[in-house]
Write a structure and sequence with these properties.
The chain is of the alpha+beta class. The chain is built from 14 helices and 15 strands. Strand 7 and strand 8 form a beta hairpin. Helix 11 crosses helix 12. The longest helix has 69 residues.
Length: 563
């Protein structure tokens, strides 16, 4: 057993059952047995005392009855002294017999007749009492035993014990109550051979059914009191059953209350276990839902609330950590993309600048003026390209940190578009249709930044349009907004790809299918600049327009200041 418990930790319910068994069940069982034993001893003593008391009561009733009859016979005998003739004596005795129902017969007889008469009349149904008269004759009275029984047992009519009054001369039964032949014979058989005179004695073989006898010398009778099984059941068995039933009910009540308490406690602890397991597996959204009632301990409720509060803090920290990890991942991607972009996009202009510069510095060949000018123009063009790429990279931190400074004022959209078209490098000589030249609307914007926006958009449209296609610039007025659209003919871009074009270093053609030059920062920078000037930008790709960018800019209707 010790080996078993050393290898296996008991659950709370099992421990509570063991505690109840050793702390409640065993003590209550032992206490019940002790109480039951004490109760039996007490009841057994009460039964013995009751048997003795009843025997004494019957003895006293017999004495009272005998004294009463003897007194009456004394009075009758004294009265008879005044009657000289037998006729008057008989008439007097007849009158008394008629008036007193318990006298079956009352007469005066001689001594010789008395002996025969006594033996003849003494039986189970009658009793003979006599009084010797002064003339040597005897006054005899024959009493009905039924009347005798009523007088003797009148105080014990409700008692279930068996009481027998027997004659000591011949052992015949004089009177009884609750008579049963077998029990009577058994009681007579258990009587001791030598009986104590004029005292009540307990005897018998069954301790819970005590027998008591009282042997009298005057009259010469023995009174036997038998405690029946029914009396024992009422006195001992019934009380024992009540004690055992109360113990059983108490144990069941303890089990019920403890079981109910344990079930609620176990359910709540199971909730704690499940929540802890969930946390260990990374589920930081799991909360403890306690079953609270009067059986829920304060400590469990406190622990549950503190655990939920702790998990909430962990969940918040976990979300922040995920966010930081995501930002770190994006930063790593940005770093990788920037390195790839710089290494890829910067290599071409640097190589061109290095090549033409080396060519101009050569001393072994003679370079004409026209070739020098071409070389210098190419060097200038590639330097400007490097400058724009560097400016794009430097403006990103300002956009992300919202540190852009603007000189916002009303500007003419038509002049902005004309200047932007002039600044665009249109090496492919694609036709740009400007439908905004006749627009007289003014917008609130920073002149240089808004030109940078449209230069990027127009150059982007030129790079990603089909050969011999047109670039269309158009506008429309919507309430307090001016919508400028830049359209170019291009294959329909999938919706999933379209959603990512505003991200940093994202291009329509990826690194494996790249056909144009660029850092992939154009649309990201444009979006940042437009939104910083309280505008909005949207992109579309469908059969109607191919690829279209719409810029929503605030009209200069009222004075506004942007910082």
């Amino acid at each position: 057993m010790a080996k078993f418990f050393s290898k296996r930790r008991l659950k709370i319910a099992e421990q509570i059952i063991i505690v109840i068994f050793f702390a409640v069940i065993i003590p209550m069982t032992i206490s019940g047995l002790i109480i039951n034993n004490i109760n039996q001893q007490s009841n057994r003593a009460q039964l013995r005392d009751a048997a003795v008391m009843i025997a004494n009561v019957v003895s006293e009733e017999v004495d009272v009855f005998e004294n009463s009859i003897n007194n009456e016979l004394n009075q009758i005998s004294k009265t008879l002294e005044y009657y000289n003739s037998p006729e008057k004596t008989d008439e007097y005795l007849k009158t008394i017999s008629e008036n007193l129902a318990f006298y079956n017969e009352l007469r005066v007889i001689s001594e010789q007749e008395f002996k025969k008469y006594y033996n003849y009349k003494s039986n189970d149904e009658t009793a003979v009492f006599s009084k010797e008269l002064a003339n040597g004759k005897y006054l005899v009275a024959v009493l009905d035993m039924k009347n005798l029984k009523v007088d003797i047992f009148k105080t014990l009519s409700q008692d279930k014990r068996q009481i027998y009054v027997i004659s000591n001369d011949d052992g015949h039964l004089i009177s009884s109550i609750n008579y049963e032949k077998e029990v009577f014979e058994s009681s007579i058989a258990q009587l001791p051979k030598e009986l104590k005179q004029d005292s009540t004695v307990i005897f018998g073989d069954i301790k819970n059914q005590p027998l008591a006898y009282h042997k009298k010398t005057n009259p010469d009778i023995t009174i036997i009191v038998n405690t029946t099984e029914d009396v024992t059941k009422n006195a001992i068995d019934y009380n024992r059953d009540k004690i055992l039933l109360s113990i059983i009910l108490t144990v069941l009540t303890v089990f019920f209350v403890v079981g109910l308490y344990t079930s609620y406690l176990y359910i709540n602890i199971r909730q704690l276990f499940k929540a802890i397991i969930a946390i260990s597996k990374g589920n930081y959204e799991r909360r403890i839902r306690l079953l609270t009632n009067i059986f829920t301990p304060f400590e469990i409720v406190f622990l549950g609330n503190e655990f939920n509060r702790m998990v909430s803090q962990i969940h918040k920290s976990y979300i922040q950590l995920k966010k930081k990890n995501k930002e770190l991942k994006q930063l790593n991607e940005f770093r990788s993309n920037m390195i790839d972009t710089v290494s890829h996009e910067f290599r071409t202009p640097l190589t061109s600048i290095q090549g033409y510069t080396s060519r101009l510095l050569r001393q072994d060949i003679e370079i004409d003026e026209d070739t020098k000018q071409k070389s210098l123009k190419i060097i200038k063009k590639q330097a400007e390209r490097l400058k724009r790429m560097i400016e794009d990279l430097l403006v990103i931190p300002d956009i992300e940190g919202a540190r852009l400074n603007f000189d916002v004022k009303p500007v003419s959209i038509s002049s902005i578009i004309e200047n932007s078209v002039t600044l665009v490098k249109n090496d492919a000589k694609k036709e740009i249709i400007n439908n905004i030249s006749d627009c007289e609307a003014l917008i609130f914007a920073d002149n240089d930044r808004i030109e940078q926006v449209f230069v990027n958009l127009i150059e982007n449209a030129i790079k990603y349009s089909k050969d011999d296609s047109e670039i269309t610039l158009d506008y429309e007025l919507r309430e307090n907004k001016l919508v400028v659209s830049v359209k170019n003919d291009y294959d329909i871009i999938p919706r999933e790809k379209l959603k990512t074009l505003f991200d940093k270093f994202t291009r329509i053609d990826d690194s494996t299918t790249r056909t144009t030059r660029g850092t992939g920062l154009g649309l990201y920078i444009v979006k940042g600049l437009v939104e910083a000037m309280n505008g909005e930008i949207r992109i579309y790709s469908n059969e109607e327009c191919g690829f279209c960018v719409k810029v929503y800019l605030p009209l200069a209707i009222e004075e506004k200041v942007y910082i």
